[in-house]
Amino acid sequence: MTTVRKIVDEKADIKLYTVPADATVLTALQTMEEANTGAVMVTENEKIIGIFTERDYARQGEVKGRLAKDTTVRDVMTSKMVMIRPETTLQECAELMRQYRVRHLPVLENERVIGMVSIRRLAEAMLQEQKGTIVELENYILGTGYGE
Description:
By secondary structure, the chain is an alpha+beta fold. The protein has a single domain, classed as CBS-domain. Helix content is about 40%, strand content about 20%. It has helices at about 5-10, 25-35, 55-60, 90-100, 120-140; strands at about 20, 40-45, 45-55, 105-110, 110-120. The model has no long low-confidence stretch (mean pLDDT about 90).
């Protein structure tokens, strides 16, 4: 079974984006746009205290009369995060995302966030895993390339 470690290792060059809790939502949205990501970690005194996602903005932002330029990230972020470890399997990630209705799972190792698994990256990894299984089964059935 493939674990989150593989995703984190493959994407080792990807930066984990953060914004301070007292930053404006507009600043967080600009950071997300520049990074081409749907979520950023929220920090206070260099410690991660939450996550801010596109969904947080959609549900807690301007729909409720909060202007992005006047609202702090602290006011709309999610402070109760679902965290995973590098040893978490892809299937466990999918179940956690379904159960908690989240699209981003921060990866915690040695009490430090080392990456984030998005629903897109999870789907890509699961598809890759399934393709590998299909090739192995085809080779077994055809008697070619199996065990070589």
